Amino acid sequence: MRAIQVIRHGGPEVLEFGTVDDPTPAPDEVLVRTAATGVNFIDTYLRRGLYPSVPPYIPGTEGAGEVVAVGSDVDSVAVGQRVCWVDAPASYAELVAVRAVRAIPVPDRVPDDVAGSAMLRGLTAHYLLDGSAHPRSGDAVLIHAGAGGVGLILTQLAKLRGLRVITTVSDDEKATLSTAAGADHVLRYSDGLAEQVRSLTDGNGVRVVYDGVGADTFEQSLASTALRGIVVLFGAASGPVPPFDLQRLNGAGSLSVTRPTLAHFIADPEELRWRAGEFLGAVADGDVDVRVGQRYRLADAGAAHTDLESRATTGATVLIPS
Ligand code: NDP
């Protein structure tokens, strides 16, 4: 099969397209012919060596496609079924082995590119609202990178729950997208951001800040949070947040800070199925509109990484193995 490999840690140039052996499904796995592969920030952290990984390896954890073979112990998934997944290694490839218990059936009304590139972001948005924090109807929240893959979905899910949503974006096009997703107020990043957030919330600040940008936004996130509120630091698009003195949370208003990761909110297959069912159901019913902003051929994965890391993308990013 054809696949992308990370041949050493480094920039997008270390992604090499070539031919490798087909995977053989283990007894509890299914083999999927990939129709769409999601490109996520975690793929870039691993490629750079920011998170542990040992090259050479095939990157990617997310995709969608048709089951072409099943392992000897599998009776829950059948050949010919459309499935998607968020946590199978080696997904930048034409064939991917996926544990049957982690293969999620795709509703007919959800296209391959959406199922293959929005599940990881969609399940993240789901647990951010119902897992790492629990904002209630009427609460104000701040979502950084409101026009990003997670940001657009999180905004829509937050509005469905009756939250008041303030977002940040870096340019006019992204502001338009964030507004269309339902954001009540769209702001630009600035040193005065927290003051703007407070003036939109009667001086109180927001109940929850969702910060996937990290280094560049964390201080403003703290300053934007209401008494006893929570900063959910869930990513590091601009770099990791430096070491932090916990005593500051006292002076800032008895705040909480959490640093969650999706894997811990879908480890139990039942929880995975619940979150996936709710998210895919909302997409299939038209309650959440997933924007696949960029499509690349599998061979052009390097360009996809370059664009994602340079803030040139909106919504989800997908590779098509064709
Ligand atoms: P996005 O589509 O949101 O892309 C990142 C966005 O961050 C950019 O488009 C940009 O938007 C903003 N940004 C601000 N500063 C920078 C910078 N210096 N370099 C790059 N981007 C910057 O990505 P995803 O939706 O895929 O992921 C969003 C975040 O969520 C990432 O940090 C990712 O790691 C994290 N994540 C965390 C998960 C978890 O469970 N913890 C799971 C999934 C994702 P703008 O130009 O508007 O500022």
Automatic annotation (TrEMBL):
Query: InterPro entries given for it?
Result: ADH-like_C, ADH-like_N, ER, GroES-like_sf, NAD(P)-bd_dom_sf, QOR-like, Quin_OxRdtase/zeta-crystal_CS
The source's superkingdom equals Bacteria
Alphabetical UniProt keywords: NADP, Oxidoreductase
| CDD domains on file | QOR2 (cd05286)
- Is this entry keyworded Oxidoreductase? yes
* Every Enoyl reductase (ER) domain range: 10-319
Protein name (record): Quinone oxidoreductase
